[in-house]
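Cross-check.
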Amino acid sequence: MGVSLGLLLLFFLAITLFLFSAGPDEGTVMADSPEGVILVSWDGVRRDTLEELIHWQPAGETPRACPGSATFRPMPVPCGDFLTCMPTMCRLQKIDSWDPYGKTMTRPQHAQMLSGYGPDITTITTNKRGRLPEGLSIHERIAELVAPHVELVHIAMRKYASRGITTWARRNKIISRKHLVGRGSPGIDELATTRRAFSQLESVASQPFFMFLHYKSADWAAHRSGSKSGRYRSALMHIDRRTGELLEHLSTLGIEQTTTVLITTDHGMNNRAHTKRQYASNRDTWIAASPSVLREDLSASILDLTPTVLDLLGGDISNVSPPFEGKSLLKQ
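Predicted model, tokenized:
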């Protein structure tokens, strides 16, 4: 009886040790997953103006006010070797890219950004006409190549970065209606857009997700006041601030370590317009990332964004049909 009781105690002790030793490993797996990707479009942001505001002054100089509007001219803050007017962007990895096709317009370029194809395949060549063929949007590709249970969130102006791009994903219920925010004017009011993002993040943070977020206020400011205006620069600094709040919210939700944020633009500006390709300021774009996950030895374009997002989410892009015109920019 004593031997049997001793064996029984040893058995329960072994089971207890096994459970306690297995717990941390299982917890570690859960901490690494789910993963999320956020792609943010800063509509109409000139690369040279962005660089000017990021590297506003050498760090050792007496600070001078940033070149904003009369109502918003913040003082720069330290960031590495510079005093910067864009503290969020200053902390991120940034690489140069460009727009390889067609008139540099909002909807055609977002179609390229959110599919990985040029206008011959997207069929979207103006802000008014065209629709992505079924199966080619980034949302449909995620469902096909990654998993159908990845939550998809799309917060964008319906006219410019949703119409004709999300059509089949909506009709086939790949994007849930509650996660498709395209009515009203999301994008013009960067504060309201960010608050929408907060609300959506809180509902998807516990599972794998892809969020697209569209800030259009800089583009609107340039169309009204020109790309050299204080109003335009103020819009960029406001978007930088809201993007910083977005990154802080990821930390609040405890998902900053498992969420990759990519930031880009659809086109630049030339004073109040952006459709003529002969101006480098229209076709020169850029891509930023947090954390620093991008290769810097490749020539990048907006066509690379969909392959990069799919790669981040674990999708196999090697046999996509038709083949992507872009490529993944992820470090190996």
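The chain has one domain: 34-312. Residues 2-32 form the longest helix (31 residues). Passed to J.P. for a second look.
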